[in-house]
Fold this sequence. Notes:
Helix content: 40-55%
Largest sheet: 3 strands, mixed
Low-confidence stretches: 141-148
Order of helices and strands: HEEHHEHHH
Strand content: 5-15%
Strand order of the largest sheet: 1-2-3
Number of domains: 1
Amino acid sequence: MAKKKTWLDKLKETKQPHIVKLEKAFAGIPAGSRLFIPSPKLIDEYIQHIGYGKRIDSKAMRNDLALEHNADYTCPVTTGIFLRIVAEANFEKLQQGKSLEEITPFWRVVEPNSTLSKKLTFGQEFIADQREAEKINDYIGRQENHSH
């Protein structure tokens, strides 16, 4: 029997980000749109560039990624799945002995009371605690100096 993949395994998968042209409307996105499908690794890298004490909502992150990759929209469905992979994988790193400074600060995107945070294996309190520790303000929107 195959070993169940860990969240870290899922984060390390080498799926390439790509753009699809929508034949029909999907998730509130009109037909004919260029839809960017990110990868877990790309979401992880994006979040690493969010400064200490700042936060960005997932909609702003999707807008940034669509602009950066010359698409009309970023897929909200895969982004949500990949955001969970990033959160769970980085929490696994913590459990393996990494420090907070050595992991991707997913709590800067994942809202403590969001549908996603309710699905996380480690619960919502961790996210709320990290936001409190960083005194994260209510800034929502584009990051300053986001570059790769």
